[in-house]
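Lecture notes, structural biology module. Today: joint structure prediction for complexes of two components.
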Amino acid sequence: MTNPNPVSGSPDKEPATESQAAQNAVGNTDRAATTATAPKRPEGQPRPSLGRLFLDNLWAANTVTVTVLAVVLAMLVGAVLIIVSDPEVLATYSYITARPADAISSSWTVVSEAYANLFKGAIFDPQASGFTASLSPISETLTYTAPLVFTGLAVALAFRGGLFNIGAQGQATIGVILAAVAGFALPLPPVLHLLVALIAGAAGGAIWGFVPGILKARTGAHEVITTIMLNYVAVYFLAWIIIQPGVHSPTRADAISKPVESSAQLPRLLGSDLRVHSGILLAVLATWFTAWLLNRSTVGFELRAVGENPDAARTAGISVTKAYVLVMVISGALAGLGGSNMVLGSTANALTPEVVAQIGFDGILVALLGRLKPWGVLLAALLFGALQAGGNRMQSYSGISLELVTVLQALIVIFVAAPALVKAIFQLRAARAARLQTSLAKGW
Amino acid sequence: MEPGEIHALLGENGAGKSTLMNVLYGLYQPDEGEILVDGKPLKLKGPSDAIAAGIGMVHQHFMLVPVFTVAENVMLGAEQVKGGIAGFLDRRRARREVAEVSERYNLRVDPDAVIEDLPVGIQQRVEIVKALTRDVDLLILDEPTAVLTPQETEELLTVMRSLKAGGKSIVFITHKLGEVKAIADRITVIRRGKTVGTASPTASRDELAALMVGRSVRLTVEKQPANPGRPILEVAGLVVDDDRQIRAVDGVDLTVHAGEVLGVAGVQGNGQTELIEAIMGLRPVLAGTVTLDGEAVHGWPTKKVLRAGVGYVPEDRSVDGLVKEFSVAENLVLDIYDRPPFGKGLSLKPDAIAKSAKERIEQFDVRTPSADAAVGTLSGGNQQKVIVARELSRPLKLFIAAQPTRGVDVGSIEFIHSRVIRERDIGTAVMVVSSELDEVIGLADRIAVMYRGRIIGIVGPDTPREEIGLLMAGITPETTDAAAAPAPEGPGNEDEA
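The predicted structure, tokenised, for the full assembly:
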């Protein structure tokens, strides 16, 4: 799989497919330097320097560039929204012809302040003093990131297996229920208790993934429909079970369950003042596991083959039905772990109707933004986690509603999903076809 | 091009034929050079310019809307409306146009038939009708026979002759030498994007083939007489349904011996596909038995059949044979990824996969930029070589190849054929299913002809083409000459007509 050397052969052995000829032509018409990409370089020619390769790749409209530019574009649109939604700033525009400096400076102030707060809330606040305060933004970011990694991986894995798992929300919901119940109902010693609670959460998600998987494999029922419907079932099941005796908190009148025992909670990483907990470590572990599963395991080979071409997979002796069920079970288990994070971590310690927030649906965005690659999902989840954490500060300090963050997230994903748009705006070479689009189309 | 001329454009896959024609049709812009129509240079910005200039094209892959009727497809893109601002589609007029064109060029199509119900040959005819209703003078047919049965090909050639009689010029892109000789007035051979020669249809097949690939090619497969051993594959009374639950294989008996090639000839759609899929465990066996080297294998899952020593080249490589997005290396282990040395327990061994890929690429002359290139970027011939390399790189008892050289260039055909014979010579039982009669005759030691789900006869490879052709059409000669078969027995030739 890792063979950077071109196949040795006489010059007349070059393949002459039309698509390659076309690719070469595209490369040649533009910057001459960019034509020396690794696989097509004839032998004997000196290897271009690493820096050159880096620059070439950066400008070759690759996925990283597009993603970064998508973020920039989204923030520009967000800036317009911030200006428009601020009545004071908007007022300066009524006399813009008379005193344009007013409008410009007040717009700049409100936008820069908002984004500065976003940054301070998510990454680092230069004014903060002391260990806890300076690490607080990162801690918040990682806290929001952890569950999104799990649900993002869940959606990405299913996607690679050819299934559009819209049900991460439902799977996370069942996961959170089982994890919480195991967390307060089982009298177990500390480490074991946490382990059991996590396994319960994963099992809950796996069961909720198994159902659409088996339906798809046996009856051909479309997984988009079944998973969406199971989301409703899961959400209302959660609302119902919270108020059942034995689950409902005896000391509270509102819909909240008993709290999870401390023995089943994910330990905090940086002391009790900072919310970041070991869920983020589990998330990294899960990312590594998913990457290994997809790229380095026989199971992953089967899943990918089935995802790309089920007919060829079947002909090669791979059981397509088995692969569909398996991918949904693993995907569900990952989503279930994401759900467990919401009740075993520091965001909450008891079931409420909103305990899973939107992590399942955000997971779809994270998976797409991460280009369905495990490590990409991790980075995308970090970005979303940062936006969430920064958004909280932006709301409290700049008075800009948290919904703007949601709008920003949506815009980023839209721009990423339409790479042609970003490339057109930034005049990038159309070097690579957008894989995401094709995989999206295939999902349906 | 002259009016009323059929000009064949001959070249290997990837030689640049289709690209040239796409330029002519305005889909691609030329980097240099110009196109002259009636002596005047022509700038084509898109297909609509080309149509206006009187150029029409029938693509290799049809551009029809499957759920529309013939008339609707023909009017698509040039819809006639009536009723003024209300803009009702003038379906009646479209139907009339279809009927007129059909009449004039003897192209029988039903204007009200829905495309998806029509056989491929008729769909192609619809494409031609569509081009003709646009009043074109020059018609480009891009590999029109690649998807057709021999009969449909014959009909297409007749249509082309009547178009020619009607004064239309035709550019006929192909890599099949026989058709070129049968129909073309002039032949231009293209290799690696350059015109390498012009020939008249009287040139011999060998001359044309040599022009095409740039060296002389053996069109007849060189082989020693077969040395058949014990029976490896025995099929008895096999009954299989197709996807629509219609009986496709209706009581087939046949035997393939070690060290022989059994060719299965027949017009496409007479049950060959279903027969093979049933043997491979891809399709349920409703009755009868399949025995592999003494062991009943019907009802086994495909993986088990493959593991038992069966190599299989499926008939549609892009659908069933390859995962196009996967690399060449991954496709080379598509059915053995979980066996040592490629997979151990749950983990894959990328180094072993890469090493084996390198060897296979070398051995089977797969022309790819690297083992990591996606298989979909290779030419058809090289894709097919990847499949053949995969299937022939493990010890086999039985090798089944369905349409092993469909849509493959001459050079690769030669290579694949020699590999098939080599496999036979090391004692593997080989079964070749092909709708190309030449291929079956060239490779096979015995030929089984399938017709409507049954083996209508088993004959020797020396049997005259005409006789096999008649069998393919379902006509059994009174004297089924069993003596012609060199094999010790022919369990399928007793039968039924």
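Point to remember: Residues 6-213 of chain B form a domain with the Rossmann fold fold (CATH 3.40.50.300).
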